[in-house]
Amino acid sequence: FKKLVGHVxxxxxxxxxxxxxxxxxxxxxxxxxxxxxxxxDSAINASFPASGRPQRDPLLVGINITPRIKIxxxxxxxxxxxxxxxxxxxxxxxxxxxxxxxxxPLFTEKLGVEFxxxxxxxxxxxxxxxxxxxxxxxxLHTNILSLDTHTPIIPIEGNVFKSTELLKQLEYPVKTxxxxxxxxxxxxxxxxxxLHNRKYDFDxxxxxxxPKHQQAVKRNAAWINEIN
Length: 228
Description:
Elements: H1 2-10, E1 15-17, H2 20-28, E2 36-38, E3 60-63, H3 73-85, E4 89-92, H4 97-100, H5 104-111, E5 114-115, H6 122-130, E6 134-137, H7 140-148, E7 153-155, H8 162-169, H9 184-196, H10 202-216, H11 219-222, H12 224-227
Parallel strand pairs: 1-2, 3-4, 3-6, 4-5, 6-7
Helix pairs in contact: 3-9, 6-7
């Protein structure tokens, strides 16, 4: 696989990828570093007009996990109970409802968490995300679309290093949790407490840091003009 990737990408004039970990991997596969450019995932520029922004519920928390996440039923119950002990409401929400329906019954049937779904567009999905005070998600694009609406997230790595790489590049202040790490559920609960108690300066992040990276998305396609 590495040999194939190195051959295909190594013969391109230019490639744009979304993080430094991917860049380092490609170089190790034999792809010349001078043809690789790093730019964030274009989804961080998904439009979300202020006129469509719902009123944020200061007690509402959105959550999802995927079948890939290493977590027990008991640990899920512990997380849900902790969120509720803070006086908060919880909904299960995901941009991949079909795949996550394999795990959602642990929330809906056993713990009584509502599964909010059947969105007809990504704008509708973003409105639901924007109504949350914060979102806990193992879905990369749920995390990105939440940030687009200036909704804080507690990210969980869903696939090797995809979310970790991108959110590090975006200088997001909350570390991406990894379910392969020992004690990660306890760390999740600590992060829930930090967001609940407003310990992060998200106003600064969404006013200054995040817009800077949204501008960098232009590099996903702007280089095409340079070679035509």
